[in-house]
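Input protein
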Amino acid sequence: MSDLNAISVFLAVADLRSFRGAAERLGVTRSAVSQAIRRLESDLGLALLQRTTRSVNLTEAGQAFHARVAPAMTEIDAALAHARDQEQTPRGLLRLAVSTIAESFLSGPLLAGFAERYPDVALEVTVTDQEFDITAQGYDAGVRLGEVIEKDMIAIPASPDQRQVAVAAPSYLAAHGAPEHPRDLAAHRCIGWRPVPGGAPYRWEFAEDGRAFDVEVEPEVTTNDMWLMVRLARAGAGITFGMEETFAPYIERGELATVLERYCPAFPGFFLYYPNRRHLAPKLRGLVDHVRRWRKTATG
């Protein structure tokens, strides 16, 4: 079967009526041109060119072959050019699965900046805490805490370092006092988080003297809605636990206060993760580059 390279050589010779001219146009040796033409004629079982010491002309079969393949090669060249342009220009639908607690990623400026920079990319963001195979479900990438990302994924930091903290309204603390150690939470009203219906409530994670441990609280209220947890805590319903950046505006206004600070160390935050592929789609490459620029600015 004839290859496209040999056909391209034939078209160059046919256009220029010269083996030397075709070699110069294609950037190859005259010998390479001759070998390609011989191979093509052998594959087809036809003489395509009449060669003398002074001229090169198409045979009748060569003319017929040229008439059919020249338009097809023009279409192929156009398709290749379009594919190269697609390779360079981010466009199309970019589907992301993002944890509900990835506050800095979901806060607005990061995604708004990406949309402005890449207007030909349409974003579809599913906010979910369910753990699933993003590739199998048709997502391009996801955003989660690093500890729950599959090991075969590529992951890049997508937020500053994070802390989880316990908070309560000043009114609750005035009425019930503040726990001095995480084990004291058993004596307090707690507002817990359950990622998915039917799943176990999230265990509150702490550290002491460099040793990590978790506490299985008995929440009086359990929900999968972080904002309900915030509203209930502000209303004095009890102590709740989550990302410090989620609570930050309410702490700054004095509506919530942190407790158990010394048991809440910082840890690596959220990561943008995606399948390990040799060729990254331009739309995803654009997001990766944008996240890296944004994080560099956010962390100084």
